[in-house]
Amino acid sequence: MESLLDIARGPLFRFSIIIMILGLARVLFLDIMAAVIAYRKAGDKSMPWKLIIGRSLEWLFPVKRIGHQRPIYSIFSVLFHVGLILVPVFLFAHVQLWKNGIGISWPALPYSWAYWLTISTIVFAALLLIGRLFNRSASFLSRKQDYLWPLLLLVPFVTGFVCSHLNVSPSNYQLFMLMHVLSGNLILILMPFTKIAHCVLMPLSQLICTLAWKFPPDTDDAVCTTLNKKGAPV
């Protein structure tokens, strides 16, 4: 078991990091290239940059948007994402893992912060999953990965909490730790190929939405030709 843990923490972790970085870089590059092509083809090239930047900041820091629709669900979602980002990156044990894996380290969270952030992330993930299951509109729009991702994200948090704060036998500790590391590696590998890629696409979302309405100059003629309505009275 110890040898499996060494592999999971070492070569497999570094492999997962490489896949995540290259995959997310590819997704971001393709999105930027699509935006550049759309802008070049656009008939109206004027861009409301102030509005785009403002809306992008609102999505990245959704303080003003929390109370608009489903406020309780929105608050749970924001708090869940806070823990989801801070704990994997700034937990002391994780900082050491990053240092051993890629040679870079940074300040870690205080112990009490990490403890309560872990608990809150587990609780809010469960509540969000329940809310998605029992809210008719949310469940109608949800896909399989919308249910599977919260469950997968819960695994490293639950197993990490068990290893750090509960008294378990050495054999069970190694089993839970192996589950913790492997599930974390799996999440890193899957990130570029699933909806979690929005972590790098979110800053560009409002720009892409704006460009989507910047049609090429001959769009109206092309649509009329496709519909066989060219020259028809309006």
CATH topology: Fumarate Reductase Cytochrome B subunit
Number of domain modules? 1
CATH class: Mainly Alpha
CATH architecture: Up-down Bundle
Strand content: under 5%
Low-confidence region ranges: none
Order of helices and strands: HHHHHHHHHHHH
**Total helical elements:** 12
**What is the global morphology?**
globular
User: What's the multimeric state?
Assistant: single chain
Helix content: over 70%
Summarize this structure briefly.
The chain is an all-alpha fold. It has twelve helices and no strands.
Lay out the secondary structure.
Layout: H1 2-9, H2 11-41, H3 49-60, H4 71-90, H5 92-102, H6 111-134, H7 136-141, H8 144-165, H9 170-190, H10 198-201, H11 205-212, H12 219-226
Helix pairs in contact: 1-2, 1-9, 2-9, 2-11, 3-11, 4-5, 4-6, 6-8, 8-9
Task: Write up this protein.
- Helix content is 75%, strand content 0%.
- It has a single domain (2-226), classed as Fumarate Reductase Cytochrome B subunit.
- The chain has helices at residues 2-9, 11-41, 49-60, 71-90, 92-102, 111-134, 136-141, 144-165, 170-190, 198-201, 205-212, 219-226.
- The model has no long low-confidence stretch (mean pLDDT 80).
- It is an all-alpha fold.
Features:
mainly alpha; globular
